[in-house]
Amino acid sequence: MAARRKVRVLRLSWPVQDETHAALLGGDAAALDRDPWFARLLKLLRADNPLGDFGIYRAVAEVTPCWELFSPSPKASPTRGEPGQSQVSTNLMVTIHLPGQTPEDEVDALLDALVAQHPWEIPVIELAEVELLVRDA
Q: What is the architecture of the domain spanning 3-134?
């Protein structure tokens, strides 16, 4: 049986500009760096921290185009759209792994930083503990 590595997985729904979404679907990966909202996430991901740490690979993230449906209440201040009106947001679903042995205070600081940089007033960020299969050496 393959070896396993305990990790934490972060799954983030992160909005991008419509132009960024279209550029990505057209194969322009550099559009991520140009997007003002996604650039915030890239800055954190590329900093010296355990986000996306795969040993000999750093800052690893899986990015999937997606769309999110939501209806902001009249009390909301949505980044996109108007309160009381159903919306569709062009997003990226981003999966980032953290080593399982990352100290809790460091994990908490990274989560706080992600929430602070997320453009939504209520970010969608999931945190779970999983095991990854590791290729035998």
A: 2-Layer Sandwich (3.30)
